[in-house]
Design a protein that fits this description.
With 269 residues, the chain is an alpha+beta fold. The longest helix is centred in the N-terminal third of the chain and has 17 residues. The chain is elongated, with a radius of gyration of 23 Å.
Length: 269
């Protein structure tokens, strides 16, 4: 009998662990400005901008002040502001939008989801995890299509080289932001066959997890900097005879999603 997943979350109200306790004030009189020391001022500028984002001084959805304005306010070089923006982007607090500048994002609400879940239960488990974290989220899938997959996929699914595979691309959204990218490969030729396979026992999983850097397209979709660490998970689900049913490749932004109970049997709500 499948059991309800135990999903633990970090309370949405907790302050961001990187939030600074104090802010620094901008110089008011140019005659009183101290000489610029970019390396020494960078941590102060970064901490102050971070704190003002987290306390709502710069609200979500609004752009940060222009680079020139920040340079003048903090009396620092352009390089200091550029480095601060890069760090804030890597933390998931801002995102560059063409012709608008650096837009403030909502502070991350981290959800914790299990990977040992039967395919048919993925949407409800993901949604419940988001609700438990005090936010909204869901999985979105495109229309299935039959493809000739890469050789490595065929080998993992133990299929002949000319065997067609049902391919489904999707992604997970939390609070309006994409947090994971999914690629499903099903060892069936038609969507009806997939539905039938869901009724078969699938209590054996093979899960491989690695950390790798985000490529440009992935970084753009997940709103992270190129080269940021991403969690790359491959999960193969087998039926009761040991035959692979489907393979999931899920790319996760670890700043937004934590994966739990990797090795437990499949769970069901």
């Amino acid at each position: 009998m499948l059991h309800h997943p135990t999903i633990t979350v970090k309370p949405a109200g907790e302050p961001h662990p990187l939030a600074a306790r104090n802010t620094i004030s901008a110089s008011q009189n140019s005659s009183e400005k101290e000489p610029r020391v970019p390396v020494a001022r960078f941590p102060e500028v970064l901490n102050d901008l971070r704190t003002k984002i987290l306390d709502g001084t710069y609200p979500p959805g609004e752009p940060l002040p222009h680079t020139e304005d920040l340079m003048q306010s903090y009396d620092v070089s352009r390089q200091v502001i550029t480095n601060a923006m890069r760090a804030l982007k890597e933390e998931g607090l801002v995102w560059r939008v063409a012709n608008k500048g650096m837009i403030v994002q909502r502070p991350p609400v981290i959800i914790e989801i299990p990977m040992a879940v039967e395919r048919r239960n993925e949407p409800i488990v993901f949604m419940n995890a988001c609700m438990s974290a005090g936010t909204t989220g869901h999985l979105i899938e495109q229309t299935p299509r039959t493809v000739r997959p890469p050789e490595a996929i065929l080998e993992s699914l133990r299929l002949d080289p000319d065997h067609p595979v049902l391919y489904i691309e999707g992604h997970g959204v939390v609070d309006g932001q994409v947090v994971c990218l999914d690629q499903w490969y099903l060892a069936t030729e038609e969507p009806e066959a997939e539905a039938a396979s869901a009724d078969r026992s699938s209590d054996v999983l093979d899960i491989h997890t690695q950390l790798r850097q985000a490529e440009l397209d992935e970084a753009t979709r997940l709103r992270v900097s190129r080269g940021s660490p991403l969690l790359d998970i491959t999960r193969i689900t087998y039926d009761y005879t040991g035959q692979p049913l489907h393979l999931l490749r899920r790319l996760i932004n670890p700043q937004r999603v934590h994966v739990v109970d990797h090795r437990l049997p499949p769970t069901s709500p």
